[in-house]
Amino acid sequence: MKNLYLRFTIAVVAITLTVGLSGFVKPAEVSYKCMIQMMNYTGEKAYVVVSLIDPDGNYVKTLYIQGDDKEWFPDLKNWWKFSHGSNENVDGVTGATIGNGERNIISLGFDSSQLDSGYKVRFESAVENQEYYAVDAEVPLNTATIKEKVDGSGYIRYIRMVPNR
Amino acid sequence: MLVSVWRYSHLLFAICSSIFLLIASVTGIILAVEPIYNKVQPYHVSGADELSLAEVLSTLNQTHEEVVAITRDRNGFLKVSSIAEGKNQDFYVNPFTGENLGLPIEKKPIFQFSTNLHRSLFLKSPGRLLIGLASFFLFLIALTGIVLIAKRQGGFSKFFSPIVKENFSQYHHVKYSRITLIPILFLAITGVYLSLLRFEIIPEPTVSLEVDYDNLNEMPSLSLNDFELFKKIKLGELRELEYPFSEFVEDYYIIRLKNRELYVNQYTGEILAEAQFPMVNIISSWATVLHTAEGSILWAIVLGAGSLAIPFLIVTGFVIYFKRPKTKIKNKISKNDAEFVILVGTEGGTTLQFAEQLQKKLLHKNYSCFLAMMNDYDRFKSMKQLIVITATYGQGEAPASAEKFMQLLAKKSQSQKFQFATVGFGSTAYPHFCQFAYDAHQQLEKLDKATALMDVSTVNDQSFEAFQNWCTEWSQLQEMDIRLEKPKIVGNSLPPSTFRVLHKDELPSDETFLLNLKNLNGAKPVSGDLLSVIPKEGERERLYSLGKLSDNSLVISIRRHPNGLCSNYLHQLEDGADLTAKVVPNRNFHFPKNSKKTILIATGTGIGPFLGMIAENSKKKELHLYWGARTPNSLSLYKDFIEKSIQEGKLSHFKTAYSREKDKKVYVQHLIEKDKQLFIEVLKKGGTIMICGSIAMQKEVLQELRSICSNYIGKDLSHFQNKRQIKMDCY
């Protein structure tokens, strides 16, 4: 009986410690190098926004915006609703647009807890006066498959990701 | 093709596009600053372009965590895209050391705003289309403008010869459009090109290189420094280099040079694929550089000047258009009741003012008179006298309001006999002086019912005196007495000053006298300026050429006319009397500062301004004076002064021609013929010939000079007139 009590105590302490400490310890950051390779389409340079999507399919945050003129941001409708709607600060994550056939290599950072737990990286794209792709490409944050090339369905030919050195 | 067709096209294109061109040019001026602003940023490292790619890459790899790509922009700045601590970073580097020089130049909001407005008026695609069309219109405006200048100047070969100044807008419109023609043409053509590219009318092919993935080697694995290609390529040739995405051999270096793209194996350094950029891409790249002036301060300034000129040309262009006479001619007498018909051929409207003056005076004296444009030539049932007053456009062509005249002459024949007279308005600075007037006259002579009352008379540079002379002659032939009033076009005269009469020298036998004046306030005239004297209020002004003998002494030379109001008024002034008069600047008749040799030609009182010019020749430049008068006795007024000037070295030579000598009548033009070697030399060496005196003398002298020019120099006299080597002030 005493034994049982002891075990119970240890278990409570252990759980308390785990839960308590986990509140203070920041989960590890992992970063991936990501290549966005564009199709050979005709027209202006594409605006591409990279967002983190939770397992329920909701936007969590903006990881990168390939496009530096805010005039065109509303063209990326779904993302704009989220990002503009939640007053997200996206100043630090914008880069230049690239044109057809070109590629862009960027670094994307995640919490390690977001790996292998149903999160995805979504690429949505738009080109002036042309079609808008709400999901041009989507890469599951699954460590087993993340290195595989993912084809795009719009202006993006494919996405590749590798862990950063 | 008719001038008016070109002109109306020029105007029409401008009307269609002026708003857009105005927006594009104003934003263009702002955008011309951007490449200059960028170029002067401190990211340029001199000598870096000579580094090899191998040297640059190994430096960068040693100094930075992970480089993803490097870009060399048109300013020659090297930008590195890298990943450091999981973050994207872009910055300029020093290619020698890898040192981070600073963050990429951010486009200033003003430039971003201007770019959007410049490209698309904030209207996205429709806006781009409008701007593209405006560029095309600008191109057409430039083309029609080139033709108009050529027509005005008298041929393409005279495209850049000096412009005859008619008024501010006309002169500066032509002047600045010529100066900025090159940048404007470049802006228009590249603008059109970029629009065509944007709307995919010019397709821009993409280079796609094929890599043979089945035969990729990882051996022999070399260091970057040993890649032959990287050792060979200089940084100056590079546009962009992308590092392999991963360490798989399937990932390779992508290198874009100015003219080609290459894929390079990351282990062995061998070229996996290579292709030249298609011609279109290279042209597009040039079009972009030429349109934006990226990377070149000089070209940015040139394009900026072109942009700056466009609003100016739009404004002056419209001013020219609105200043053109809107042919609202008032006639009290209908065309079939008028005995006198005045027809006008005009370009800028000044000729019309003279004709209106004549019409007014004829009506005043109760002569039935009808005034119309030459294009309105028709059957005039009561016409007895036809007066054609016409300017000439460019190479002897009809001016705008007379283009149809020649055809109409043939079509509309008169039923009664009539006499006609032709007056040509023009400038002897144009090679085909009054050519159209002569042509019209000749055509009229061929008509059965028409008889010429007199020869063609010409009026140079809107000389009122010459027109008045013609009018006097014309009216006397018909025993009429018509006196014209000078139209008020003499501008920019200074406020009246007071002059004190110092001394009067008189030669009664010649009815001439010299007045020495002292300026008591205000005006500081230069020899050659005019003194405007109005003897009594309400009377017409008379103009006298001023000579400045010294700061305190001016001189005018006057011929006394028996009934001359003004000359008699001046004649009765006693020494010490005060005279109120205005000085009218006459820049075209100032003594040339840079002319080494100068010839002065005068008859009678025309010597007045030359007395001042001789007195002021303290540098003792070579100066020749030719003077014509009736008898040697006429010289006595000036004799002392001239002898003194020769002694002091202020006057080099003095020659006289007397027309009333018993044995032989000599005129100044005869002296010119005799001394032609001197005249040839002066003209060839950039010297100046100044002529002052009567219109009749001017005509003879010009005739003589013209034949010397064409016979001995092989150039038209107008060539020298345009270079302002011939200066005239005749009345």
Automatic annotation (TrEMBL), chain A:
Pfam entry (one): DUF2271
Protein name: DUF2271 domain-containing protein
Originating organism: Euzebyella marina
Organismal lineage: Bacteria, Pseudomonadati, Bacteroidota, Flavobacteriia, Flavobacteriales
TrEMBL record, chain B:
Domain of life from the UniProt record: Bacteria
Transmembrane segments: 12-33, 129-150, 179-199, 297-322
Pfam family, one: PepSY_TM
Domain Flavodoxin-like: 340-475
Single annotated GO MF: FMN binding
SUPFAM superfamilies, A to Z: Ferredoxin reductase-like, C-terminal NADP-linked domain, Flavoproteins, Riboflavin synthase domain-like
Keyword annotations from UniProtKB, A to Z: Amino-acid biosynthesis, Cysteine biosynthesis, Flavoprotein, FMN, Membrane, Transmembrane, Transmembrane helix
Needed cofactors: FMN
GO cellular component: cytosol
InterPro entries, A to Z: FAD-bd_FR_type, Flavodoxin/NO_synth, Flavoprot_Pyr_Nucl_cyt_Rdtase, Flavoprotein-like_sf, FNR_nucleotide-bd, OxRdtase_FAD/NAD-bd, PepSY-ass_TM, Riboflavin_synthase-like_b-brl
Sections of the chain in a coiled coil: none
Occurrences of domain FAD-binding FR-type (ranges): 494-592
Protein name from the UniProt record: FAD-binding oxidoreductase
Classification lineage: Bacteria, Pseudomonadati, Bacteroidota, Flavobacteriia, Flavobacteriales
